[in-house]
Design goal:
The protein has one domain. 48% of the residues lie in helices and 10% in strands. The chain has a five-stranded mixed beta sheet with strand order 2-1-3-7-6. A hairpin with a 4-residue loop joins strand 6 and strand 7. The longest helix is centred in the C-terminal third of the chain and has 23 residues.
């Protein structure tokens, strides 16, 4: 994947080295998304993470921002380029698109509009403050623990989280509240599979929108599919607990995550990503 020549929009809030940047109250779908992401990455029961989020909701909503702009280090510059590319693509696809307020890079823990964000949760999006949160140490975890290699695997994760922002803007997150939160085919699974599909839509348009400054080749797409497979609920559950429990699925199986990423990539059409009405996930 070639990305170094991509545009850098500077929509990065760099909180690395700051410690916990304040505790923010929040709830509703924001807390649910946070809870699910904890499970997605490390096999944590979403109810456990949700309890941790609720425990800090009585805190003061005083969130510290870090350095805004384009960071100097390559790892964070990559996040800036991919985040900017996702914004450029969605601005062309959705007339009323507005970029996330920031992509926050942090280490260990930070305050968010959905409660205390911790690196153990992995990357996540908070609808309450419209920010994406990413501890860059997750890239090591993604490769060493889950075997998802390549820069495009990382780009897929960022595009997936921005996909949640698109859902927040279009109302998909609110609509998901009326469905069962977890379980095979539940509302949370459909939310996550749609975000996978949106990541595929971004990949389909990234090269054209960036006028070739970002190039994605077939090997990159294979890396993206490998990442989708590695973080399927069934794969993670089998690895962490030795059994698969569909009733606790939050993101979908490996096959489902790969399929919906491919639907987005092959079509390049966000309207094909309606997982909420799909009879087959």
């Amino acid at each position: 994947m070639d990305w170094e020549g991509g545009r850098r929009g500077g929509n990065i809030d760099d909180r690395r080295g700051m410690g916990v940047g304040g505790l923010i109250g929040g709830g509703g779908i924001g807390a649910v998304v946070l809870a699910a992401v904890g499970y997605f990455v490390f096999g944590i029961d979403p109810r456990t993470t949700l309890s941790a989020v609720e425990a800090v909701q009585g805190g003061q909503a005083q969130q510290q921002e870090g350095a805004r702009g384009t960071p100097a280090d390559q790892a964070a510059q990559f996040v800036d380029v991919i985040g900017t590319s996702t914004d450029d693509v969605w601005k062309q696809l959705l007339p009323n698109y507005a970029q996330p307020r920031a992509i926050v890079v942090y280490d260990q823990a930070t305050g968010t509009g959905c409660g205390l964000g911790q690196s153990a949760m992995g990357p996540f999006y908070c609808p309450q403050d419209q920010r994406v949160y990413l501890d860059l140490s997750f890239w090591n975890e993604l490769e060493s623990r889950f075997g998802a290699k390549g820069e495009f695997a990382r780009a897929y994760v960022i595009a997936h989280e921005v996909g949640h922002h698109v859902q927040n803007l279009t109302g998909s997150l609110r609509n998901a509240q009326g469905r069962n939160a977890v379980g095979d085919g539940g509302g949370q699974v459909r939310v996550e599979l749609q975000a996978d599909c949106y990541a595929g839509v971004w990949a389909a348009h990234a090269g054209q929108v960036s006028s070739g400054a970002i190039t994605i080749n077939p090997a990159d797409i294979e890396d993206g599919l490998g990442a989708a497979a590695a973080v399927g609920d069934d794969a993670i559950q089998q690895k962490t607990q030795g059994r698969v429990a569909p009733d606790s699925f939050t993101h979908g199986t490996s096959a489902q995550r790969m399929r919906w990423f491919k639907v987005g990539y092959d079509s390049g059409d966000p309207s094909r990503c309606d997982t909420f009405e799909a009879a087959r996930l």
